[in-house]
Structures are given as structure tokens and as C-alpha cells.
Amino acid sequence: MAQMTLYNNAWAEGNITVSEQPSYSDNTLIYLHEQEPPCLGGGWVQQAYLSRQVFDYLVSYDNGTIRPWLATSWSESPDRKTITFTLRHDVKFTDGDVFNADAVIANYPAWQKGIGWHGFTYMTGFTRIDDYTVALHLSEPNPEIYNVLSNGHYGFQSPDSLAHNSSEQKCLRPVGTGPWKVARWARGEGISFVRNDDYHWAPPNAHHNGPAYIKHLEWKFVPDATTRWGALVSGGADAIYQPPSAQWQKLQRHYQTLSYVATGRPQAFSFNVQRGPFTDQRVRQAFAYALDRKQIVKTVFKGAVPYEGNGSLSKSTPLYLNVDDRYSLNVTRANQLLDEAGWTGRNADGYRVKQGTVLEARLPYIQAIIDQEGALMLQAVQDQVKRVGIKLVLIPLTQTEGFAGARSRPADKEISFGYWVWPSPNILDIVYNHALNGAFNGNNTSFFNNPRIEAQILAAQREPDPQVRQQKFDALQRWFDDQAIAVGGYNFTYNVAISNAVRGLWQDKGNGLLNFNDAYFVKEKP
């Protein structure tokens, strides 16, 4: 763990009696995060948490309402495939470059390059109308395009930095218009941010419009949850990400807490439907029936993280359908289904056998995405499916291995487990479309390939009538659940615990990203 400056948080469990009016200071806020991403920008939500500090966005998502941000207004064409944005005139990047229509157009290739699943937004590019007006073009109508544009992946970098900075500079110290500038990134330790004193274009759902109240933000990477929790309690940190679930209820009593259930897809089991035993629907359903998923989640996460039965959409995603009761624990039914599928033999270890082949399922998982508590859940799943004769082999991967594509092909695994943060029900397109830009879609971890269903997903996404659109997405979620292409585990939940000496820290409602620009101390740090 990196060396951290300690300060006295003597009244962590007491009542605050001093004035809580926001004020500017030269103080440093210390925040402890878990995962360290490879770059500050990109397509992983862990990168979006960082991007939010440095970049600004065309629009802001505010509890279901889209607010202006760098765009002051917008209008749609009759076919909903062109959106014209009018831009602010007073925004500058921290290197002095001007934010205007040319800057928007310059960023589009960076979005395409930096976000591997960018094609599922249906964006095809921007055209310049005048200095402060741009038109965004879509290949398909996308009702959630504003949610997409407001999330942490679609921020703006200065055109000069895009043109002249090295790849490493754009990775470690990108130049944005946001409330913070990167002062230094020490790999394996953390990122030092310093406030942008010229900032005065916050979105209307922010708590104030101006520079950050505090001058320095130290974003430390501390993989161990217990260490993060200990630092908060001892006064070595002002806010921490994902405290241990065992401490969550106590933290809620004695500290400030924030919690956000991520949109998109929950932590779900996706079955390889291209090859292996899970090409048989009965075997997929048997796996689901063998599990008491609700009890596992309750035992492992102790109320800090909610169970989710829907394997395709999380409960915070627009047009979510509750399917929690479809596969409740039923060992008798699981055994019956496996017998019907021909897995009637047993070996000396109690695992089912069919024509000399053991019913074995390999499940590789990236430890940076499935944290220590998630790994405990997988171990509990391994024990429960063994009762019906399924051999589950857990294969932990490092972040480097996982991001390099290790064990990601159909021959490498029978089950995948993971989440995907995305503010639209067209997450179904991202995780079930067999191709991306004409090539293998690595987001499709079930290797699903059904043109008829893919056409239905696209038809639902195009649908202009909200009620009919809901019906179409309901039908799709029921179909995927009935087929057991994927079954849910728990919702990816962003829990944060905050010192009582801090006020103003909040999460947005699009990605759950933390906003430090409004944070301030109600007690001066020594």
C-alpha cells in the first residue's frame, strides 16, 4: 500500500457542530479506490470514474432528465437520426484550447479508437454547422443516445493534445475542460489531481458552478477492501470505494455513505451456447436451479449488494423487467433436467458423466472485475452445483491477462461471469450480437448467434412508442431468461463511505460516478 498522509478524524462518530457552509481551501481530499485501470480514458467503468474528473460532456443525466452541459440546447430530425447541438461559447481546455464545433469533431475519432464497443451507440460522426453548432449522425434511432453521451466515456480532450501529445501522455495526463487536472500518475500508487481554477461551466444538477472547493484530490489505488476501511476509520482517508460488506451496516450508522446500482448488465453467468454442455438448454437451466443465489448473495455481501435474477439487465437500467422468481433453488428439478439431457452417469468424485465425458465447466474470471467478495460467491456456486454433479473449475486471471483476451474464445470456457455498465437496454445488443464491425464481438461472452433475436433487439431499440418499446424489451428479457442464456447473480453496486468531516460528495445517476467538485471540509485539516 502506498504511503498516505494521516490526519486526525477524532469526531468520526460524533455530531458536527461547526458551520457547514462550503468554502474554498488549499486542503487535500484523499480517496481510496480499488482497481487501477491502464489509462485514464477508455471503455471500462473504472476508467469512467477517472474521466469524470478531467472531462466534461455534451449533456448531463439527472435522475431520468437530460440537462444541458457543454451543449446548451439540441433538436432532432424527423427520422431521429440527426441531433443538432448548440454549444457553449465560454469553455476552454486546461491547455488554453477553445471548446467549439471543431473540438467536438476532433474528438470523435478518439472515441472510436478508445472505446472498443463504440459501434453499439449507432453514432456515425459529427458534422460542423458553424463555430458553435454541430450535428450528430446516427445509423439507427437511439432513444438513449443522451444517456450514452452523458456517461463517463464520451468526454472531450483538447484538439491540440489529441494532435500533438504522445499516446502515453493522452493515457496518463489527458487534457480536458473539467474541474480537475492531472498533476501526476504514479503507477501502482495513485493519481494526484489539482483543481482547474478557471472552471465555471458545471451542469445544472451540480451543487455549485465554479472551481472545486478543495485544491488537491489524491486518488489512491488500494486493492484490499479491509485496508481501505481501516484507512477511513483511522483518518488516513476521507472517502473510500467498496468497503468490506461486513462493515457496511456499521459504516451506514456512523459515517456518510453513498450507494449506486449500476445500469447495464448485472454480475451474471453467461453460458457458452456455441459449444460444450451448455448448448443444451436443459443443462443451463439445471445449473440455475442448483443454486440458491439469493442466499449466497445475502451471505457473502451481507446486505451491501442486492441480488439480481435477471441475467440481461440490471434493475436500474431503463425498461428492466423483474424475473427474480424464474429459477429459484430446486435441486430435484436440476437433477431431473440433467438426467433428461443424458448426464446419468457418475464418476468416483460424484460428477456426472455422459459417454465417458465429465460434466465440467470452466469459468475464467478477471480478479480486477470480480473482487475478493465476488470470488467468494463463485466458490459458493462451485460447492452448490457440485451437489447435482456439475464440476465447476474456477480460473482466476490477472487484469493484464484478462484485458489481453486470455481465455475469451469459445474453446476456452463454458461459463463467463461479469457485469457491463451501460445506461440503455440496448446492452442486449452489446452482449448478444455475434459481431462488432463485422468481426468477432468479444462482449458476447455466451457466443450467442441468432439473427432473428438480434433483429428483434434492433426493432425494440428503434421503436418510437414508449409503451410498445417496453413491451418489446419485456418480451426479449423473458425469452433470454426462459432460454437461460444468462442468469443473474448480483447487481454491480458502487458503495462509498465518507468521513464526517466532508460534505458535498455525490454520485451521478448515469454511471454512479463520484463528483468531487462540490466536496468541501467542515473541519479544517491540520
UniProtKB/TrEMBL annotation:
Q: Which keywords fit this entry according to its UniProt record?
A: Signal, Transport
Provide a GO biological process annotation. peptide transport
Keyword Signal assigned to the entry: answer is yes
Please give the chief subcellular localization of this protein.
other
In alphabetical order, the GO MF annotations are: peptide transmembrane transporter activity
Q: Which residues form the Solute-binding protein family domain?
A: 65-429
Regions crossing the membrane? none
Any one annotated GO CC term: ATP-binding cassette (ABC) transporter complex
Where, subcellularly, is it found? Answer: Cell envelope
Q: Name one Pfam family in it.
A: SBP_bac_5
| Entry-linked PANTHER family | PERIPLASMIC BINDING COMPONENT OF ABC TRANSPORTER (PTHR30290), PERIPLASMIC OLIGOPEPTIDE-BINDING PROTEIN-RELATED (PTHR30290:SF10)
Give the similarity note: Belongs to the bacterial solute-binding protein 5 family.
Entry protein name: ABC transporter substrate-binding protein
